[in-house]
Amino acid sequence: VMRYDWLVALTQDVRNKYYLDLSPKGASQEEIEQLESELGIRLPESYRDFLKIWNGGEIRTSRILSVEELLDYAKEWGFEKFDTEIKIADKRQRHYYASRPAHQLIFRTFELSPVVFCLDTRYQQSGESFIAQYDAAENLEGHLKPIFPSFESMLIEEILEEPQSEIQFLNP
User: Dihedral, CA atoms, 103, 109, 21, 25, nearest 10 degrees?
Assistant: First the structure.
């Protein structure tokens, strides 16, 4: 059984009530390893598995970055491997993401919001990194708070556990 069997099934559902538009082609093992080598980190297992199948895509009004986009974002907004102390991504403070902790890798963006989700690369537990949210309006403690224990748990919670506010239209 593959980790994302449930998500593969949802992407094949013609009704697509989850608003999934995932890349039809996954990243190769080599592309992922090249990215990890350039960043100096190992991606969490559940994100690696996702990239191997889809290499990014849209979920509702958010974008999960592909291997290429991850690298572009890391170069544009700063990224540093964690080395015992928390550093800030860009001392010059010239852009919205400048005061982000440098070890947080942006991997998800939202259409209608400047907030981003980041992989907290300080440490991994069972091959997973927790997900943090970056919002420049928050103080540093807020950025370091885990909002999901892993990439996979984020997908499960946001896709499978539908918001209660959605109205269900049932066939009469």
Answer: -30
